[in-house]
Amino acid sequence: MFKKLLICSDLSDASNALINCVGQLKNAGVEEALLLHVVYETIPFETEEVQLERLKPIIDENHPTSQAILDKLENQRSILDAAGIKTVIKTVHGIPSQVITEEAEKQKASAIFMGTHGKGILKRATIGSVSSEVLTMTRIPVFLVKTTISKDEVTLACKRMFNRILYLTDFSKTAVRALDYVEKLVGDLKVPVTILHVQDTVDIDGLIHSVPELDPKVIKDIQDRNTKAVENDLVSIKTKLEAAGAANVDYQLAKGRPIDVIMKTIEDNKDLSLVVMGSQGKGFVKELFMGSLSLQVTRYSPIPVLLIPAKS
Fold this sequence. Notes:
The chain has 312 residues and is α/β, with parallel strands linked by helices.
């Protein structure tokens, strides 16, 4: 499933910590990786002469700066090699989000693995920049791991990435595709799963207020029938994951503002270690400006998020 990863490295301490998380994916089928470092090719208002001068230490392989970059990448590769993941190093000049997306497709990567904090190429990668730009362009699954930096300490919430999966579903096509990945992870790792569906009370209230002449009993009957149908769908998913080999599966049907319910669920269940959900892949730009749920989850989730895009 995730045979080959593209791992984004910015050579920071946060990036070093991120590399240590990748080894957990070995049991999920990862065999090889492309360790990618991107150097910004263009800076606004920078003249060509200044740009050439800035890039010279990196372009020249014999320059101390270029050698220092290579040494750091080699150190990171040694960690991956020790985890049993055959790794190739590559440094590219360009716009990070474009390079990451293009290299992932060119190298036929199964997934992109990146942090949401750091320095260097990912210094703007709080959701809203490099990582969000990658999400708008790629059709490849993306692992996003949030990095917390306090003073000189770097903390990553990926120590037990496959302790328990939180699978978010709205029963859309992309959610069904994300379920395929959860099923494969369950088959490989026997990881337990919590299934969560949130009925947005804002949407429900809006529907009710749009037809004020509806009898309250009719409204309640519609809501009850909808709840029963959703519960049946959740039970079907639970049965499917149990058949795939999940150690334990439970489901939750909740009402409220989706992002609030999801964050509260993660906060209240410390065994949850990875969120899996669908995104819209290309065409995600519209969602980006509307503040989509997947964007909100990647921004606020304290645990890693695996986003599965729509099919090509």
